[in-house]
Design goal:
Mean pLDDT: 90
Strand order of the largest sheet: 3-2-1-4-5-7-6
CATH class: Alpha Beta
Order of helices and strands: HHEHEHEEHEHHHEE
CATH architecture: 3-Layer(aba) Sandwich
Structural class: alpha/beta
Helix content: 40-55%
Number of domains: 1
Number of helices: 8
Distance between the termini: 37 Å
Oligomer: single chain
Radius of gyration: 17 Å
Strand content: 15-25%
CATH topology: Rossmann fold
């Protein structure tokens, strides 16, 4: 599915969020500035938007982008080359539930809009915990359902009807953007997400709602 939507993925991200997704990423990157993170793993990197933003902001970081979709990674490599960041960002295909890295390999792990697609969220967090070094930082950006009763009806209308309709026109994939509202509704959110992270062995789990709660940034660390 993700290979088929790769050519339209960046456009749809901007269109669906009216460009706010860039602000969400920028807010997440700011949270990483106080941590020594020379080795960063960006899981579900997609076309590399977050990896590129981190490389431009965190000038000492070496970033590995991991994704199951070769189509996404191919676009990411082109974007990195155009940004002249080839020496700082590398890509490889891999499974988030069986990360192809040794224990304690990274100072920081990020994942933007990806954990809701994990087949086993708890197992995914345990793998992240395994490859994070002691004192490492985990930063998750994920779409979420707004808790406000005033906002939710408009949000439901937008995600259930408008986004799938535009997605079908732009990406020509009838599954990808119809699946989006279902995946957002199904993923654990806020306190429950932090509980799963804690049960996986991560510590100091916190969350920050953004834009009426339509996006949430989660952070956690390792001892």
């Amino acid at each position: 599915m993700f290979d088929s939507i790769a050519p339209a993925y960046d456009f749809m991200n901007r269109a669906m969020t009216f460009g706010i997704d860039r602000l969400w990423r920028r807010r997440a990157v700011k949270m990483m500035r106080d941590v020594a993170h020379s080795d960063v793993l960006d899981i579900a990197t997609g076309t590399g938007d977050l990896a590129i933003m981190m490389a431009k902001t965190m000038t000492d970081a070496k970033i590995t982008g991991l994704d199951l979709s070769e189509g996404m990674i191919e676009i990411g490599r082109r974007k990195v080359a155009e940004s002249r960041l080839d020496d700082r960002i590398s890509f490889q295909t891999g499974d988030c539930l069986a990360l192809p890295f040794a224990d304690n390999s990274f100072d920081c792990i990020t994942c933007a809009y990806g954990v809701r697609n994990f087949e086993n969220l708890a197992a995914g967090y345990k793998e992240m915990r395994r490859v994070l070094r002691p004192g490492g930082l985990l930063v998750i950006i994920e779409l979420s359902t707004p808790p406000s009763a005033l906002v939710k009806p408009f949000y439901d209308l937008y995600t259930r009807y408008l986004i799938p309709a535009v997605g079908r026109m732009v990406s020509k994939d009838t599954r990808a953007y119809s699946y989006l509202p279902e995946s957002i509704a199904a993923v654990p959110q806020r306190e429950r997400m932090c509980q799963i992270m804690s049960e996986a062995g991560l510590t100091d789990c916190r969350y920050l709602p953004l834009t009426f709660g339509t996006c949430t940034i989660y952070t956690a660390s390792t001892k």
